[in-house]
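Lecture notes, continued. The same structure-token format from the folding unit now serves as the input rather than the output. Read the line below as a description of shape only.
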């Protein structure tokens, strides 16, 4: 069973980062149409001689000063080191393999390994970074304007949305744009952030103190606030106010497929396929077309398109796109219908292990081996979860109610989706709230069935 639900980041109404969350047109853009054929056409200008080597700096503000002095663009990677997700890609970027070293040497490069001190004026993460990822790239002008973002993951794997080749392509497109002498007149890169004064950081978000009460072990242990935890902190005020809607407020980072477009991973903008009866098909987009712009944003890769979708209509609405068909620039309007943002949420750590909904009352839902499923007579396609309690098993509500590790859970509240691990955790949290009455249907090692009842605990589980 696929876990499909809409998702989107919800900010507390009282909190607003003084930076460019949305994509409002500039004054010039409201007065006249942008010269998109120039903006998206062949670039003019040339890149200067690259740095002798790629140097990964650790201070963003000093790196921004260097970018302004040298006139070079800035490339920043954000990597949560304890997380295994995307570790291979992170290593490939650092090593500069697959042709990356040559293009990276054209940038002032920065590597950040903690989200705790991000300057939210420069990194407006709520609208521009998928915080459930442990690796993300930002590309800035020397003034701090956002050129491009890079990153991506889905329920399939860490590698279905990104590759070294895709990053190389994105950065090459940025370089062509950056050194085009017409760029300043186009004015399409959004406003430069105002960086004077004390920087607002995730450690100052209004939901932090309430969020910390549910655990925050990594923060207390080593001062590290992970990116997925920033996601949790951002939604904490709405959870506290009981205004958070799990069905509407988890509509984040729609995929190109949500509008019917399948993009070539390594190119990032080349349309490989258009789904039938989709928004893209209705708009006339075809396989072989190449995306160029969406809304008021020039696109450099797939993540840029997903970012525009993420900041786009929350329900039914429209989005203007421009694309190349051969040597002809086309314009189309994507029309979205209600529910268009739905994606699978099971892989998202801020949901599966976050502050939304209830905890299942045991440490982790393990997968039952096929031979054990057969022995217990559990049909394929239905639930077969082995509960794991870890240390201090007696402290878990499900254990107190009689659940044991040699039991197999075959239904929860009469529902039996075939989910385990993170997908089960996300499903459970979206189905139940703390205090709900939970009824597990379980089978013991001999196949005998019984019911286990207890009250669903809050996030944290104990």
């Amino acid at each position: 069973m696929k876990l499909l639900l809409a998702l989107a980041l919800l900010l507390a109404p009282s909190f607003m980062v003084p930076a460019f969350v949305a994509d409002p047109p500039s004054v010039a853009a409201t007065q006249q149409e942008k010269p998109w054929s120039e903006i998206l056409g062949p670039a003019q200008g040339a890149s200067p001689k690259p740095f002798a080597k790629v140097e990964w700096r650790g201070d963003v503000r000093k790196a921004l000063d260097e970018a302004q002095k040298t006139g070079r663009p800035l490339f920043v990677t954000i990597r949560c080191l304890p997380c295994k997700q995307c570790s291979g890609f992170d290593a490939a970027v650092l090593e500069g393999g697959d042709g990356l070293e040559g293009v990276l040497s054209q940038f002032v490069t920065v590597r950040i390994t903690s989200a705790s001190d991000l300057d939210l004026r420069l990194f407006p993460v709520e609208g521009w970074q998928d915080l459930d990822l442990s690796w993300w790239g930002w590309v800035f002008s020397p003034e701090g304007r956002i050129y491009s973002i890079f990153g991506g993951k889905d329920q399939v794997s860490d590698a279905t949305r990104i590759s070294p080749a895709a990053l190389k392509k994105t950065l090459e497109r940025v370089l062509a744009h950056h050194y085009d002498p017409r760029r300043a007149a186009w004015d399409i890169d959004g406003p430069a952030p105002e960086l004077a004064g004390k920087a607002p950081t995730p450690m100052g978000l209004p939901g932090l103190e309430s969020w910390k009460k549910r655990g925050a072990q990594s923060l207390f242990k080593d001062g590290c606030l992970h990116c997925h935890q920033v996601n949790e902190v951002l939604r904490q005020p709405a959870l506290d106010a009981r205004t958070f809607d799990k069905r509407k407020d988890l509509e984040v980072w729609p995929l190109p497929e949500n509008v019917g477009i399948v993009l070539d991973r390594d190119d990032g903008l080349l349309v490989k396929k258009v789904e039938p009866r989709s928004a893209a098909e209705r708009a006339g987009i075809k396989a072989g077309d190449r995306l160029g712009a969406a809304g008021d944003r020039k696109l450099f890769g797939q993540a840029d398109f997903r970012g525009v979708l993420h900041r786009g209509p929350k329900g039914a609405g429209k989005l203007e796109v421009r694309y190349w068909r051969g040597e002809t620039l086309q314009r189309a309007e994507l029309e979205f219908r209600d529910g268009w943002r739905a994606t699978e949420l099971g892989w998202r750590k801020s949901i599966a292990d976050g502050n939304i909904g209830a905890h299942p009352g045991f440490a982790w839902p393990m997968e039952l081996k096929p031979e054990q499923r057969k022995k217990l007579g559990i049909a394929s396609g239905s639930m077969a979860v082995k509960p794991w309690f870890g240390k201090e098993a007696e402290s878990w509500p499900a254990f107190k109610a009689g659940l044991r590790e040699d039991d197999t859970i075959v239904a929860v509240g009469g529902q039996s989706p075939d989910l385990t691990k993170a997908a089960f955790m996300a499903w459970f949290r979206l189905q139940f709230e703390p205090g709900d009455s939970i009824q597990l249907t379980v089978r013991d090692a001999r196949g005998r069935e019984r019911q286990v009842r207890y009250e669903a605990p809050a996030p944290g589980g104990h």
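Point for the exam: The first strand starts at residue 4 and ends at 5.
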